[in-house]
Amino acid sequence: MSIPKRISDKKKTEFYSLWSLFEKDRWHILAAIGIFFIKHSPVWLMPLLTANVIDLVVTHQRISELWWNAVILALLLAQNIPMHVAYMKQLSIALRRMETRLRFALSNQFQKLSMGFYTRASAGILQNKVVRDVESIVEMVRQMFDGGLSAIFNLLGAVVITAIRVPKFLPFFLIMVPISAALISSMRKRLFAHNSRFRKEIEKMSARVNEMTHLLPITRAHGLETNELEFMESTLAKVKVAGLELDNTNAIFGSLSWVIYNIFNVICLISAVALSYYKIIPITAGDVVMLTGYFTSLTNAVMSLVNLIPNISKGFESIQSIEEILQSEELEKNDGKLKIEKVNGDFIFDRINFIYPEARFPAIRNFSLSVNAGESIALVGHSGAGKSTIINLIIGFIRPDNGRILIDGHDMNEIDLRTYRRFISVVPQESILFEDTIRENICYGIGAISEKDVETALRDANAWEFVQQLPEGIDTPIGEHGAKLSGGEKQRLSIARALIRNPKVLILDEATSALDIESEKLIQESLSRLMKDRTTFIVAHRLSTIQNADRIVVLDQGNIVEIGNHKELMAKKGVYFRLQSGNATSI
Ligand SMILES: Nc1ncnc2c1ncn2[C@@H]1O[C@H](COP(=O)(O)OP(=O)(O)OP(=O)(O)O)[C@@H](O)[C@H]1O
């Protein structure tokens, strides 16, 4: 699928941005406009034909004229059916293709943006861009077509026909239409304040409902139902008051605008009749009806265009919101770099320093370490010592500010990280499982895999036994985020997922939460199978994991303060010794 890298040039107008979205479908858009013109013609030709028919009666013309007008009217009306279908088809093709392209472009960009970007942008906001923003652009274009085009064609039709048939009446339109439209729209503006207050109360209520549903287990567990309901009641009361005020204002302004609107129509009718009666302008009886009809349609057209403004500005806001993502420069640059075909797992960290963009102190300082393929390295230290930062540097989510990381002798800055990451497996602290079967979760992202391999991975991860007991075995759905599984079971599935990839580099971020002794034992066993013959970096909290590591790197404020195996470091009676003494089973 082709992707609009930039949907607009920053210097160009918002309409240009919109036009750029339809880069591949401009012909469909132009066709839709052309067909709309034809399908909509009865609306602006009807007053003219009505005028003809009335004049025919008043001036006693031949009756054949009536049949001609009837035939033209019938044809005009009949064409509306096929033309409307054709119009909808063209517009629909353009819109559906544009929304698909845009959503794909955003998803594509999400896969390329550097991980630093995601520490600032919340998942909810990003999701909104793909779902809501694209939706409001589509909605805006639909309204621009359905409401906007019909208003523009009505306006043009009325002005052109009046200019041809009763040119002297045109100045009346040019004065009265803007005045009546301005009056009505100024009244609507007052409604805006009430509308906006009501919308804000609704937004507050939906945030409150969201919060309430999330808090349900805590509320119920602490017996706080009454407090929660009181809180909810006051929120709902505010929505009710704002709603009542809005309804009331709507009723007053609605009737006032209707009256003003009709007064102007009556003024048009009376003026046309008076001008005709006193023979100031030669206007026939049919013309009077036609001019009144056009005046109504002109006022309607101007009002529709005014009413479109809020939706248009909302749509443009969405275009801007999407552009922020599509034009972001924070991309991981991989193109043209060395593609890795094989990884042994030798690492050299050469005087690495790293500071987060908005941090005051470096997270990693002068970190140097040489790791042989197959070695297991446990990273330990207090919270904030820099363990996760090292892991993110190893995965390439962040780059050192200075210093180098060499993988099998290749500088990490010079390789295509996507190819290197195929040889990595990550077992995160919180198991990332999705709402599908066990099989889908384990085989995520890898091609065809034999039943035997899935079974072996599950057995090695000590997960086979519990999976067998599930109603549909490995094809059992596990619920959202694996909701139907225990913490230990989720961790073992994460280990099975890592095993099936047969990685050369393994990254384990141990969960801090304690498991029961049985689960702990099962996980330790499966971890040792997983770590065998692989370079492993572990953010270690469990004493058993730390003891089994080949080397333990003790970090403090981003510095390596001690390195060695468990025995050596315990004998040293330094930072590691004190960390261990602080907690007998975990750090
Ligand atoms: N995105 C960020 N922006 C700014 N500072 C950050 C960011 N992430 C981490 N830090 C800071 O960098 C330092 C190292 O953080 P890091 O997450 O690597 O520590 P850690 O040892 O993994 O801690 P923990 O055991 O609590 O997970 C800390 O001082 C932390 O506050």
From TrEMBL:
Domain ABC transporter: 347-582
One example GO MF annotation: ATP binding
Protein name as it appears in the record: ABC transporter
Location within or outside the cell: Cell membrane
Entry keywords, A to Z: ATP-binding, Membrane, Nucleotide-binding, Transmembrane, Transmembrane helix
Pfam families: ABC_membrane, ABC_tran
Transmembrane portions of the chain: 27-46, 66-88, 145-164, 170-187, 258-278, 290-309
CDD domains listed in its UniProt record: ABC_6TM_exporters (cd07346)
Xref: SUPFAM superfamilies: ABC transporter transmembrane region, P-loop containing nucleoside triphosphate hydrolases
GO CC terms in record: plasma membrane
Domain of life (superkingdom): Bacteria
InterPro entries assigned to the protein according to its UniProt record, in alphabetical order: AAA+_ATPase, ABC1_TM_dom, ABC1_TM_sf, ABC_transporter-like_ATP-bd, ABC_transporter-like_CS, P-loop_NTPase, Type_1_exporter
Gene3D superfamilies: ABC transporter type 1, transmembrane domain, P-loop containing nucleotide triphosphate hydrolases
Domain ABC transmembrane type-1: 45-314
Protein's UniProt keywords contain Nucleotide-binding: yes
Membrane topology note: Multi-pass membrane protein
